[in-house]
Every structure is written in structure tokens, then in C-alpha cells.
Amino acid sequence: MGSRDQILARIKSNKPELIDLPQIDTSVFKDEDLDLIKEFIKKVEVVGGNVVEATSNADVIQQIKANFPDTKNNFSQLKDADGFNTLNLETIQNPHELKDLDVLVLESKIGVAENGSVWLADDDIPVRVLPFITKHLAVVITKQAIVAYMHEAYKKLSETKADYGVFLAGPSKTADIEQSLVIGAHGALSLTIFLK
Amino acid sequence: MKVGLFIPCYINQLYPQVGKATLELLEKLNVQVAYPSGQTCCGQPMANSGYESDSVGACNNFVELFKGFDYIVTPSGSCAYHVKKHYNIIPQSEDVINVRNNVYELCDFILNVLKIKDFGASFPYKVGVHKSCHGLRGLRLGSCSEVVGERYSYIEELLQHTKGVEIMPLKRSDECCGFGGTFAVTEEAVSVKMGKDKIKDHLDSGVEVITATDTSCLMHLEGLVTRNNQPLKVLHIAEILNSNL
Amino acid sequence: MSHSQLASIFNKDEKKVDWHDKALWFVRHKRDLSVHNVKGWEELRNLGHGIKAHMLSNLDNYLIEFEANALKNGVQVHWAANAEEHNKIVHSIIKENKAKKVVKSKSMLTEECHLNPHLEADGIEVIDTDLGERIVQLAKEPPSHIVLPAIHKNKHEVDELFQEHLGTKPCDGDPQYLTGEARKHLRQKFIEADVAITGVNFAIADTGGFVVCTNEGNADMGAHLAPVHIACMGVEKIIPKQEHLGVFLRLLARSATGQPITTYSSHFKKPRKGEKMHIVIVDNGRSEQLSRPDFRASLHCIRCGACMNTCPIYRRSGGHSYDATIPGPIGSILSPGKDLTKHSTLPFASTLCGSCSDVCPVKIDIHAQLYKWRQIITKETPQPFVKKQSMKAMGKIFAKPSQFEKVGKVARWSLRNLPKSLINSKLNTWGQARDLPSGPKQSFDQWYEERQNNKKD
């Protein structure tokens, strides 16, 4: 018997009698007075990001250009942002070539108010390493895409199929040196959420 | 209502004043208290040290003495918890089940069985409450800081109705004092450090008297206070509630 | 050495103990601020407990389901009965790919299996990429905490370590500068890596996917750049459905650090186009722990570290005093299952205060399990003669009231009459730093008897 069958056999004989799987009743978590957008903004700030309002994609690009005037390598997934992009992903052979990316703009279809995270999946990220390797990350999301809790986010996700996806909350951070919070560990140094 | 008083071994031998205060207080509250003779120990010291089987004799003695009572009251959250939680090592006769169900820590009994809060006690001091762990997290004599929910504390509720008491806030409201039975000796360094930190929290808050539902924690803290000549008095809650200062 | 011996060494530097205690209490405090604002938190904990208990009761079937779905996703699945097999499997994947440079993100399982020395012996470079893990790797120490691996080091020690190994400038322990330098150093390692190894926080049976949580982004940097990704998981990491992540991701980071969620909760299902993904499923004693009804709930653990942050003993003895891969309360109920004799002092490194059980996001009855391990350890491992005999003697004394009375009298007399120097002598551990009570003339029993007699008179 290989290890697989041995392990499974041991587990089978050692496990307790079947215990029922509890059902998740999300009504116990609901806060009827919750202002979704306010809560989302508050939590994005808690996790180290910032939120700005935007009227259109063009507005987003304009604001980014104003905030990051001297960047060399920019890429955006937004539809009408051609003038912004300095690199063509189709010519990228290896994700390593993205290492000097300064600013990346992506779109998210789900935001979670309780923790300020946004969902980014393969559909939204042409190369998986993009939101991690970029120095600065901007994510555009509509107000309608904000849900209150993770339970609702997963309900939405059950209708989609992603080969890879990430709930991303704020810029990368660490507190491994004496519990001092430092923004910018391995991933993005800053995160700006544009709320449309 | 037949009420039996259990006085834990170390209180009986080392802190008889706590037993006296408990008995007098219950009598003041018009409870007919019996003190069955032949009491020893609930069995906890052996059991917590990993020698549960050596505690069976103590368990049997306890059940034998207290089986006839409607309520068993004791000035110790820890002993009450031990009887409730760990008397599963002896056969579960009706007597054992009754004893386990009917054992109460003193404050719990006064507040939730007698349903009395104000009985004219007065104690004009700044009091720091040490929430002994077995009472707090075992018997749930109060809410602990880890668990989300309504805040309550039986001992504080009784103190709030004691004239003159000022309950002082602590930075760490329910951290363990470091006694832990034989832990106090086998893990001496950490035990002492925990006790010192606990005392510092009380001193920093301006506490004059530390109190608790358990004399075991207080013995450990008092040992440190005395050794280090610190300006603190240590009293069991029964002694405060029995006061008329 | 026993836990108490290592703990007393740690306690020789009281300032360091204070600092360690405060740093971890701060994390526990952040956890409180965070969870007390979540409506239904206790219900979430119940769900976490219930889902894990159910999972364990059907684990073999969920593993089979997980494997089938992972294979469908184009992931290669391996099974390892123990640490040695795990290391061999990982090594062979690395060799197959002619790889020399490995980046690893935090994984307690690979620590448990001692993977690094195994690979390094074959000339493979293994770089731990979590900042805290990198710090302890450079210091050649094991992590002292499962979430905050370098919590025992202060910033000046990190400063010196980085000067020595990374050639940084002296910076008076500036965390911002040190983190920035580590970022540059590890960026290079990510770019050069041939293989990325990650742990697994949750593996989802019904999708074959798995989730890895980090704050730094190191798991993703590794996995998305290297051509080969190896994910190592213990069998107990399975959850039945993706929707259950809604429960566990709400519990995990809040319990660990007070964050509402980790910065990155990455859901891996299929490898990148043209690249490879492997999952190694490891038993290494877990199925045995599953066989123990009193202890199987220890397998619920989601490795948040909250029991360490809350434990008054852990905070004052340091993670290394446990001499085990997983330190603290949860480690003290897991480790005896692996080696009862080696870890026999760990269940006694507790006052049974119960804070660990109340803070645990999946409601493991940690302190109750500590109590139960104590009962087993005293029977199955050699115990000091004195301890054993004194417990027996106490048992007899407490079983017989007449005996108890005699012994009590002697004890009280001694406390009253013997000189303090004798009472607090070296033989009396209690008395090293604490006074004993003064020993009253009359016991409660005697007082009561007298009172009853007076009443009769």
C-alpha cells in the first residue's frame, strides 16, 4: 500500500462518527444600520489603503497622473486608458520583466465592507504577479459592487470560476520587527481604491 | 433550604478568618448553614498535578459529607469548579450528580440563589478585584475579556452594593495571577513574575485592598506583597462583604 | 531541558520578559478591539468549531474529493505519511526540475518536517521570505511564534543581524529602513527562484483549490514568479466548501493580529499556463491524533497564534522555552501526541486559566486537553519520585479527615514557630520570592467546634 491509501485507511478507522455540518445562518451577523460605503471606506483606511471618489475611468487616470507624475512604467486594465500604458503585456514573455512596474490600475467586481478587501481574479489580472510586483496599485470599483460580509462575497464568487483570485486588503505590510507596522513588505507599497 | 458549608483545606488550616467571615455572612443573610465535620479537600491539588486517581478518596469524602444538602456553598470558585467539572472520575450516582449540580461559589450563591445584593456591608477602601480564573472562565462568575457578549461580574456587582467601596480599574482586567496550584512551585520563575506583574497593575491603579473569590490566588499575591513590603492589603471577598466598617 | 528550566533562564532578564510580554499583550489587545466589533462573533466561533469537527469526522472522503478536483485542475497531488517522506517528495520535485534556488513562504508544516536542512544538504538554496522567518533563518534559530516568528528579537538585534548578513548600514534599529533593505534583498531572491514553496491555510474539497494568507505578499511573489509552485499541507487543512472560507477568513486575521483580514488571501486553483503546481498532503502523526477522542479537536487549529498572545506563561517564557515546532498552549496539546516523553513538561506549563480556550477562534478546549494530558503523562512517563509519593500521600491524607487534622496542626505549628530562614530555605521553592502565610493557632475546624460548644453552654 502506498502512503496515500495508508493515510486514508488510518483516517477512516480513526475518525469519529459523522458529525453534522452546521449551516451558516448569515442573519446573525447582519447589522441593519450598516452604511456599506462608509464602512468600506473606513476599513480600507484601517488596512492601510486610501479611497477616493471618481466619476469615470478618464477621471481615474487623470487623478493617478496627478498623484504619480514622474513614473516610467505604467499599466492599466481600464478600457479607455491607452495613453497611460507604457507597456504591452502581449510582448511580456516572463513575469520577471514586470519588476520595474511603477503604477498598476485594475478593476475589481467585489469589495467587502467588513474588511476593506477587493477581489481580483484571473479575469481582472492578465498576469498573476501584477498586483504584487507593482510599486503602486490602484483598484477601481463601483459602489454597487460592495457587499457587507465575506459570506456575501463568497455567494457572488460561487457564480464565477476563477483559476486564481485574491482578496486584497491594503498595501503589503509587516510588523515582524518589534511589532512596528511598516507599509511595503514584498508587495505594493501603496493601494488607492477609486470608488465609482 | 438545607445549606452545607464547604471550607477548602488551605482556608481551614491557614486562613480560618475567611471561613469565619463566610459563615457569619451567610448567617447574617438568614441562611441556616450546616458545617459537616470531617471535611478535607476537594481533590484538586492531586488532579491538577496529573494524579486524578489519587484524588478519588477526597472526592468520595466530599460527596459523602455533602450529599444531603440542597446547596453546597464554598468561598472558592476553584474548588466549586473542580467538583462540578472533574467529579466525573467517580461513578455518577444520584448523590454525585446532585453534589456536582448543587455546589456554588459564595458570590454566585448570594446573588443568584438568595437573590440579595444589598445587605448593608460597608468597606471604605479602594478595592482591586482579582478575577480568579477557575471562577471566571470555569464557572462563568463574570464575563471575561476574550469572549464577546454582555459584560457582568458577580463579585463586582456585590462590591458595587457595598458602601464605601471604590472599585479601581485595572489595565489587564482578568489576567491570571500565576498561582496555578503546583505550578507555583514547578514553574516558580514564571509564577512569581506573573504575580509581581499582577500586583503592579493593582498598585498602579491606586488599589488599597486586593480581593478575590479565591484565597489560593490571594495567598500567592500576599506572599509577594509581604516579601516585598508593598502597601497593599489582601482580603477574601467574604471578609469585605462581612465588614461593617 | 524542561519548560520550567528554559523559562527560568528566559526570566533572568526581567526587562526582556517585560518587553516580550507587552509586545504580545499589545497583539492580544488589538485582537480584542477587533473582535468585540463583530456582530455574531461567538456564532462565528461556533461555526468554525462545527465545520472543523464535521470535517474531521469525514476527513478521508474530503481528502479524496479534494484530490480528484485538484487533479482535474491540473495540479499534481502527492501524499506523505511522515516528515521524511514529505521532504523526499519535495526534494524529488526540485531535482526533477533541475532547480537550485527555492523561495519559501511561511509554513509551519515545513518547519515541523525540518525541510530546509534536508534540501540544503543537497546544495539547494532555501530562502525563507516572510520577514520574520528570514530574520530567524539568518540568526539560525527556529521561529518562536507561529505568526510572529521573530517576536523574541528586538530591533537592535535585527539591525546587527542585517548588517552582518545583508550588509546594511547601522540604523539604530529603524524598522522602516530594515524592512526596505529586506525587501530589496528578497526581491532579488524572488526573481532568481526556480521553485516556490508555500504552506496552505485552507484546502477546499469541492473545488480542489487552496488558500494562502499573508500580509507581506511573499507567497504570491514566490508562486507567481517561479515556474514551479509546491504547496505543502497537513491533512487537517481541508474544509468542505468554498463558502466556509467566509467563516474562517473572518476568524483568522482578527484572532491573529486584530486585522479584519490579511492583506492577501490568495485562492490558488490551477497553475499558470505552462507552469507546474504540486500539492503535498502530509499526515505526520495527524491521523494518530485523530484517533484520540480527548485530543482530536486540537486538529481544528487554524494557526492564528491567539492562544500564544493571550497565554500569560507564553508571554513570560518565550516561544523557545517550549522546545517544539508549535509553541504555546496549542503546541502543548499537539506535541505530547508526537513524543510524550520529550514534551512531558509542556502540559504543566500552564495554570489552566482557560484564556486560550476562550480566545481560540475554533473553540478548541485547550486547557481541558492540558489537564487530560497531565493525567496521561504521570502514568506513562517517568515522574520524579518525590512528586509521585507526595501526591499519593496527599491523596491518603485528604481521604481521611483524622489524618488531615493531624497534618494540618503540624503545618500550622511549623509556620508559626520555625525560623523564617528555615521556612524560606532553598528547599522550599515557594519561599524563594514569596512569604508563606503565618500559620494561625486555630484552624477553622477548631474555631467552629469551640463555637458550637460555647453555644451549647
Structure description:
The complex is a heterotrimer of chains A (196), B (245) and C (457). Chain A has five helices and eleven strands, in the order ααβαββββαββαββββ. By secondary structure, chain A is an alpha/beta fold. Chain A has a single domain, classed as NagB/RpiA/CoA transferase-like (Rossmann fold, 3-Layer(aba) Sandwich). In chain A, a hairpin with a 4-residue loop joins strand 4 and strand 5 (117-121). The termini of chain A are far apart. The model of chain A has no long low-confidence stretch (mean pLDDT 94). Chain B has 13 helices and eight strands. The longest helix of chain B is centred in the last third of the chain and has 17 residues, at 188-204. In chain B, 60% of the residues are buried. In chain C, helix 19 (385-399) packs across helix 20. The termini of chain C are far apart. Strand 8 of chain A pairs antiparallel with strand 9 (264-268) of chain C, so a sheet runs across the interface.
The biggest sheet of chain B, with number of strands, parallel, antiparallel or mixed sense and barrel status, is: 4 strands, parallel
Please state the structural category of chain A.
alpha/beta
Which architecture name of the largest domain in chain B does CATH use? 3-Layer(aba) Sandwich
Query: What count of domains describes the coordinates of chain A?
Result: 1
The proportion of strand residues of chain A reads 15-25%
Oligomer: heterotrimer
The main sheet of chain A comes to:
5 strands, parallel
Q: Give the class-level CATH name of the largest domain in chain B.
A: Alpha Beta
Poorly predicted residue ranges of chain A: none
Number of distinct beta strands of chain A? 11
Main-sheet strand order of chain B equals: 2-1-3-4
- Name the beta content range of chain B: 5-15%
Structural class of chain B: alpha/beta
> What is the straight-line distance between the termini of chain A?
58 Å
SSE arrangement of chain B, N to C: EHHEHHEHHEHEHHEHHEHEH
The total count of strands of chain B amounts to 8
- What string gives the helices and strands of chain A in order? HHEHEEEEHEEHEEEE
Question: Which fold name is given in CATH as the topology of chain A?
Answer: Rossmann fold
| Greatest contact between two chains | A-C, 74 and 93 residues
